Amino acid sequence: MPPFHPKMLLKVILYAYTQKIYSSRKIEQMIQENLPAMWLAGMQTPDHRTINDFRGFRMPTMMESIFEQFVIQLVEQGFIDFEHIFVDGTKIEANANKYTFVWRKSIENYDEKLRMKIKALLQEIHQVTKDELEEEKLEEELIKSTAQLGEEIQELEEQYEVEIDSEKRKELRSKKSELSKQKKAIESDYLPRLRKYEVQREILGERNSYSKTDHDATFMRMKDDHMKNGQLKAGYNVQIATQNQFIVGYGLYQRPGDTRCFQPFMEKLMASLPTVSKQVVADAGYASEENYLFAIGEEKEPRFELLAPYNTYLKEQTRKYKKDISKVKNWTYLEEDDIFICPNNRKVAFKRYSKRKNSIGYLQDFKIYECEDCSDCPMKSLCTKAKGNRQVHWNPTYEEMKAKAKTALNDKQKAAIYAKRKVDVEIVFGNIKGNLSFNRFLLRGLEKVQTEFGIVAMPHNLLKLAGFRLANFRNKEKERIGKPKTFSFIRSFLGLFGQAPFSMPNF
Q1: Which carries the bigger pLDDT value, residue 390 or residue 137?
Q2: How does 9-47 read in b/e, with b if 16+ C-beta sit within 10 Å?
Q3: Which of 211, 243, 271 is the last residue in one of the domains?
Q4: How many CB atoms lie within 10 A of CB 419?
């Protein structure tokens, strides 16, 4: 049988995903029974193995290129212009057993206990102290000890063969049995476990967990938890950029939080998009000091404007926050003297600089201020719980970024753009998870899963494009052929694959 053309297989898979058909066996069945699919396949009937092989091993080399070409088509047809894009993330469950987890803390605890046992054994064998054993050379020492124990066991066997006295033979046998147990423990337990923990640490990398059935999947908290108890499930963090409800870029990451995914995603996006957006709109999960600085750029030449509210932006608008005397933002600041004036009219003067890392390891600079005297202040219980004087830890860089973000969000035009975020990017996730029922990946491994989500993103865009065309030409279609069918637009667009400007890689 001659090989199937990749253009035909691509059309069939994309159409199948628009119809919520993801299994390779069901796609095979669809090609044999569904008239539109038969038309797209040209009456060819690839089996499920061919479809799965093409999707899992061939498409990773072409998916990003095809997706970029499709985005360029949307730009040329005027559906998107990249004036601003909306960024958000969601977690999608991996094709992994939720009980096959490996945790970093467990590995570290087991490894520590194992090393203590190994050191105790080596002390007994070599008659050395703990200080003489090097932590990095424990495996090497175990291998040497195994060889040494083997030689000693061989010597004891030779002595046992020539010994006549029954008591001495019994003593030699007992000593040989003890050494054999030590040798067996090293070969069948200590060395394999030591190597096993090392391999597990390499798989983990910077993560805290992974699944045994999909090593690239990380355990994360899912909103759509079927147990409704907040349990962790293996999954991937999917980041997308949208405009006009079209997906213009996507990326999959192993980090649960959106904050740390923003910079690598934007770097990938800026490298793939034909032009850099002037504004990137995101929610408060992306509004960190490092992300604000990344948007500004190192040379103070803005890459883009990050329109994202910081985590206390909404609280600061409330009457309760504005009346809270413990909030430093409600105090008076004298810039020329670099001091705060507390609600009791006492000076809170600058004391020293401080550096500390936040929860994700980013180094931040702080200025520490301290009140001159809080001992007899009647407002102290409302201001602080500290026993001594009230201290203020002020991050000038982050506060400056927050002030700029607040000014931007208070602008009517930019506030209107930010208000579109929920009806742009959130609807995309709703369509993928709700309408298309794509809640779990079928493939395993980061590269294959990245490809699979690209296959999901393309059908979403195709359906959106078909919807726009239906809306624009509804009257003409009704006059000509009656009620229009969505498939007619999808079929006509998929029929263009293989024609200019689309190109496929050579196989």
Answers
A1: 390
A2: bbbbbbbbbbbebbebeebbebbeebebbbebbeeeebe
A3: 211
A4: 11
Alpha helices in 34-83 (DSSP H): 35-41, 48-53, 63-76
In a domain, 326, yes or no: yes
Residues spanned by the domain of 205: 102-211
Residues 122 and 202 in one domain: yes
What is the edge-to-edge ordering of all strands in the sheet holding 363-371? 332-334, 339-341, 347-357, 363-371, 391-394
Q: Is residue 381 part of a domain?
A: yes
The single-letter code of the amino acid at 489 is: F
- 109 and 198 part of one domain: yes
317 and 327 in contact (C-beta within 8 Å)? no
Q: What residues have CB less than 8 Å from 324, skipping those under 6 apart?
A: 330
Q: Which of 223, 270, 222 lies closest to 248 in space, CA to CA? A: 270
| 152-160 average pLDDT score | 84
- Give me the number of domains the chain comprises: 3
* Lookup: tokens for 497: 């694959």
Q: Average pLDDT in the 307-335 region?
A: 91
Within a domain: residue 257? no
Whether the per-residue pLDDT at 21 is higher than 60: the answer is yes
How far is the C-alpha of 192 from the C-alpha of 295, rounded, in Å?
47
Domain boundary among 188, 211, 234: 211
SS3 category, 53 = helix
Q: Which residues contact 371 (CB under 8 A, 6 or more apart)?
A: 342, 346, 347, 348, 389, 390, 391
Q: Which amino acid is at 107?
A: I
Tell whether pTM > 0.70: yes
pLDDT of residue 385: 86
Spatial neighbors of 302 by CB under 8 A, at least 6 apart, are 295, 296
Alpha-carbon distances, residue 243 vs 29, 424, 428 (angstroms): 35, 7, 10
Between CA 80 and CA 72 the distance in angstroms is 9
Query: Based on the domain organization, do 42 and 132 belong to the same domain?
Result: no
Cα 394 from Cα 291, distance rounded (Å): 19
Domain identity same for 108 and 51: no
Report which residue type is found at 73.
Q
Q: How far apart are CA 392 and CA 330, in angstroms?
A: 13
Angle at 402 between CA 396 and CA 408, to 5 degrees: 140
**Is residue 242 assigned to a domain?**
no
Q: Which residues contact 466 (CB under 8 A, 6 or more apart)?
A: 486, 489, 490, 493
The pLDDT tens digits for 162-221 are 877 888 888 888 888 888 888 888 888 889 999 999 999 999 998 999 999 999 999 998
Tokens of 95: 């094709």
Angle at 398 between CA 393 and CA 404, to 5 degrees: 135
DSSP string covering 172-192: HHHHHHHHHHHHHHIIIIIHH
